[in-house]
Amino acid sequence: MYYEEVGNMLKLLGDKTRLMIISILNETDCCVCELVDMLQMSQPAISQHLRKLKDNGLVKESKKAQWVFYSLNKKHEFYPMMQSILTYLPDPKEHIRQLEEKGMRMQCE
Amino acid sequence: MYYEEVGNMLKLLGDKTRLMIISILNETDCCVCELVDMLQMSQPAISQHLRKLKDNGLVKESKKAQWVFYSLNKKHEFYPMMQSILTYLPDPKEHIRQLEEKGMRMQCE
DNA sequence: TGTTCATATAAGTATATGATTATATAATGA
DNA sequence: TCATTATATAATCATATACTTATATGAACA
Lengths: 109, 109
Hints:
The structure is a homodimer of 109-residue chains.
Chain A: H1 2-13, H2 16-25, E1 30-31, H3 32-39, H4 43-55, E2 59-64, E3 67-72, H5 79-86, H6 93-101
Antiparallel strand pairs in A: 1-3, 2-3
Helix pairs in contact in A: 3-6
The structure holds a DNA duplex (30 and 30 nucleotides).
């Protein structure tokens, strides 16, 4: 039933922390420790939220050196709905700028 | 914090039953017993979902004779976001048509 | 090889959620 | 007035959720 699918997707997005993660990943891919720093939450808490997002296919991961980078899955069935929801949220650029200012941005080229 | 407000709103919408209620009310105002009939759920279950929606200001009620009719609150801060989410849901007109066919539509003029 | 860093996972816990059953309230109509 | 209908609410219960703490895994590097 389609209402259930959409309902589950909204439930997934219906969490402050996951919303911020999605909103940040919409600007730039991030590794776990960057999100931990930006969101000021414990590493396991962030990991567990990322797992939920990944299990639902909303984000993808790619390992680079010792880091795991997460990015939005633009091919997800509900990517367009998610994008339209993001337009109702504040711009997360400030979080990212502060991360850069602290020299906490991960580089791995 | 705005992320929290949006998160709470999405959590509220992140339930199959409430999504259907909202989707139906977007077509036509309904009383509780019509929703009970359309959604095939117990009356207390429907009442409790309506209360959540009302407590969050998403729906309004108006008493007419022995019925309580619910309608969407178009002035809600997140009404536009809700509308954009509704575009990703199936059209609920079939539910309403079946209700009319059964002669279960409430009239109170 | 052993230590450190980044991440994931498991276990435990408190709270939230969504249903059911039973009951209360309030209007209608015989 | 009494029975019926529509709705709300309370109590209960099983399950889900989101965190914490502790531990495991695995890459980097001295």
